[in-house]
């Protein structure tokens, strides 16, 4: 990464020390949105930087934006096309957009259900995934058959995964049933 890109990355993801003020004007936020979207649409993102962006999306990037819904396309494409680690990180950003900015995401639970595979248990961010899954499935507005289908899928996975993960899954299934 050259010097110009280093400055852009520092602008997009400022460290806590260098951040001057917590409140920015609408014009500053709109400039930030434009630069961020231009950066994300460039083909200069390697896998490490891509994951770093997804990791910082819910806490550092979305709060600084004037219109966070502009990230919906980036996050949904990340969620649908990347590896398990990136999918989990994109899921966290999508969660923020769904809950705080009223993003409509059709077939969200179907795609979430499809993530439940044996490969998930070797993913780097599986603890974050189960934290988010727990939040998603705790809603009292979900139909009982949807929650039951997740419990059934998890029970089937419990037969195929290592023992140390089985304890987590059994506890998770118990919480879903309760």
Q: Whole-Å distance between the termini?
A: 51 Å
How large a portion of the residues is in β-strands, by DSSP E?
under 5%
In this structure, how is the largest beta sheet organized? none
Unreliable stretches: none
| Helix count, DSSP H or I runs of 4 or more residues | 9
Given the C-alpha coordinates, what overall shape results?
Answer: elongated
* Total domain modules: 2
What sequence of helices (H) and strands (E) makes up the elements?
HHHHHHHHH
Question: How much helix, percentage-wise, in residues?
Answer: 55-70%
Supply Rg.
18 Å
> What oligomeric state is this?
single chain
Q: Residue-averaged pLDDT, rounded?
A: 86
Q: What structural class do you assign from the helix and strand content? A: mainly alpha
Number of strands: 0
Domain CCAAT-binding factor: 88-177
Organism: Adineta ricciae (Rotifer)
Protein name: CCAAT-binding factor domain-containing protein
Family: Belongs to the CBF/MAK21 family.
Q: Any overview of this molecule?
A:
The protein has 178 residues and is mainly α. The protein folds into 2 domains: 79 residues, no CATH class; 71 residues. Helix content is 66%, strand content 0%. It is built from 9 helices and no strands. α4 packs antiparallel against α5, α5 packs parallel to α7 and α8 packs antiparallel against α9. This is CCAAT-binding factor domain-containing protein.
């Amino acid at each position: 990464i050259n010097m110009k890109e280093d400055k852009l990355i520092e602008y997009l993801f400022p460290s806590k020390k260098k951040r001057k003020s917590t409140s920015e004007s609408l014009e500053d936020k709109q400039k930030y949105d434009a630069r961020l979207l231009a950066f994300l649409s460039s083909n200069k993102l390697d896998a490490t930087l891509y994951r770093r962006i997804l990791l910082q999306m819910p806490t550092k990037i979305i709060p600084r934006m004037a219109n966070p819904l502009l990230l919906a396309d980036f996050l949904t494409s990340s969620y649908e096309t990347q590896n398990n680690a990136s999918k989990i990180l994109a899921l966290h950003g999508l969660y923020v957009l769904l809950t705080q900015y009223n993003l409509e995401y059709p077939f969200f639970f179907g795609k979430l259900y499809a993530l439940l595979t044996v490969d998930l248990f070797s993913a780097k961010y599986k603890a974050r995934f189960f934290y988010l899954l727990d939040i998603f499935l705790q809603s009292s507005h979900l139909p009982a058959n949807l929650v039951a289908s997740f419990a059934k899928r998890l029970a089937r996975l419990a037969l195929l995964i290592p023992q140390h993960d089985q304890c987590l899954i059994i506890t998770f299934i118990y919480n879903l049933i309760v």
